[in-house]
Amino acid sequence: MKILFVCSGNSAFGISPITKNQGDSINKSDVVVSYFPIIGKGVLNYIKNIFLLKQHLSINKYDIVHAHYSSSAFVAALANTKLLVVSLMGSDVQGKYLSKLVINFFYKLSWNKIIVKSNRMQNHLGFKNISVVPNGVNLDVFYSMDKRECQKQLGWDYDKKHILFAANPTRPEKNFTLAKQAFSTLNNGNIVLHFLNNVSHEKMPLWMNSADVVMLVSLREGSPNVIKEAMACNCQIVSTDVGDVSWLLDGLDGCYITSFDPENVAKNIKLSLRFSENKGQTKGRDKIIELGLDSKTTAKRIISLYKSELVFNEKKMCKTKN
After folding, report:
1. Which residues pair with 213 in a beta bridge?
2. From residue 203, how far is each of 3, 164, 196, 213 by CA, in Å?
3. What phi, psi does 21 have (nearest 5°)?
4. 85-125 per-position pLDDT tens digit
């Protein structure tokens, strides 16, 4: 089975690590994944890539084209892709009302199957033929490491407590303003706030294992990978109730859901730090395995979905011929 991933190639590291990791996880002996990265931003560049993709598909044959994010899916649809699976990630669904209308138009036009990352996203769209498949975590990459050794590699002070704002602060939806307000509320010179900026995915386990608390206070998410990755490292977590975070952290000691009030965020950070001092680690990794959110299990679900779509498409074609 030959699969083509259509995706943005405009991140700091080219293809998004989230997309690349999913491709790597399903790239097996009977499934071959190739990539068509959309290079360049803005409407004109995306229009240009419609013709480039159409040309690519005229030369190369694939069983399924799998587009990641709505903008890439628009390009794939307008390139007359025959069998198109679309993964919507969260920010492209939970934005403005107009974006939902555009997604609805393309869904009815030519999207064969939609994958979303949480039940909340599914309910928000309200379409039929949607599968909820959160991205999985590579447990061979994300695991618990010695905190002091990790802090030594990053040059962090052993004698201080470290909070990791697990996002790029320049992205408005990640709500760094709230993180700074909560940090000011703590008013503790023994606590340091860190954030991610051009940190490669390969370095993420090092940063997570260096932190006493991993914090996510986003305004909206799909199924935040950073939360699942932190869980796989047995980190303490404080997060707003976005995406499927409540489901992920349900019953997990040392992890706390906070409101958007800075004082409440600060209160939950204190609780998480206290847990870190008394217990050391959470059992987040066990929860990831229990929920079937490791990358290998997720890969099996996606491959099964591909096969179902191929069978359904073959039956539809047979009916058309008859």
Report:
1. 163
2. 28, 13, 11, 17
3. -65, -40
4. 999 987 666 656 667 788 888 888 889 999 999 888 888 88
Helix axes 43-59, 70-78, angle to 10 degrees: 50
Enter the tokens of residue 123.
Answer: 């309910």
Cβ–Cβ under 8 Å, residues 207 and 192: no
Global pTM reads 0.90
Q: Between helices 97-109 and 70-78, what is the axis angle to 10°?
A: 40
Q: What is the rounded CA–CA span in Å between residue 259 and residue 261?
A: 5
Q: What are 293-304's pLDDT values in tens digits?
A: 999 999 999 999
Q: How far apart are CA 243 and CA 236, in angstroms?
A: 18
**Measured between alpha carbons, how far is residue 45 from residues 72, 91, 102, 292 in Å?**
12, 21, 19, 38
Rounded Cα distance, 17 and 36, in Å: 15
Q: How far apart are CA 66 and CA 177, in angstroms?
A: 35
Q: CA 169 → CA 117, 165, 178, 286, 321, distances in Å?
A: 23, 8, 11, 30, 55
In the chain, the amino acid numbered 211 is A
Contact 1, 31 (CB under 8 A): yes
